[in-house]
Amino acid sequence: MEAGTDEAGRGCLAGPVTAAAVILNENFANTMLNDSKQLTELKRNALRPIIEQEALTFGVAHISPKEIDEINILNASIKGMHKAIDLLKVLPEYISVDGNKFKPYKEIDHACIIKGDGKYMNIAAASVLAKTYRDAYMEQIHEEYPMYNWKKNKGYPTKEHRDAIKKFGTTKYHRMSFKLLPEQLKLAF
């Protein structure tokens, strides 16, 4: 009963950081499954229902921009992973974490694996769920603020997104503790 966990959206200027945890059946196999960043949007969206149907259990959790601003992105990412693990129907015996930082969850042993989403199926599955759930959320809030084009940039710091912040200002979905515009750190003389 090993859970894989990963997050999506750490480097974004807007929207939540989204984490997922997945326990796969030991016989699970899928040749398409890989780190979500290595997959096309079409492949990620095709994998999501397969993972949801074939996993023993999974959980997905969003941590809001407000909370990210309060506790910082690293703590928010770890909190999201913990919340995703809380949602599992079975308590894992071991947790495989993508990346190099994690705080112990209950009394369960864990390992941090750098680039684990490209090495372990359960982390890759969590990576796909985190990314697809977050993307769907960003497409939903795009309808509220279409001028930022979140359906395309998903809240990442693209030139288009930064130009929209310059023109329209920020929203309740922006992370105010992040450097939203390069000029924020320049001194005015």
From TrEMBL:
Residues that coordinate or bind a divalent metal cation: 6-7, 98
Keywords attached to this entry: Cytoplasm, Endonuclease, Hydrolase, Manganese, Metal-binding, Nuclease
Transmembrane segments: none
Domain of life of the native organism: Bacteria
One of the GO BP terms on file: DNA replication, removal of RNA primer
CDD domains linked to this entry: RNase_HII_bacteria_HII_like (cd07182)
Pfam (any one): RNase_HII
Family assignment from sequence similarity: Belongs to the RNase HII family.
Protein name in UniProt: Ribonuclease HII
The organism's taxonomic lineage, starting at the top: Bacteria, Pseudomonadati, Bacteroidota, Flavobacteriia, Flavobacteriales
Gene: rnhB
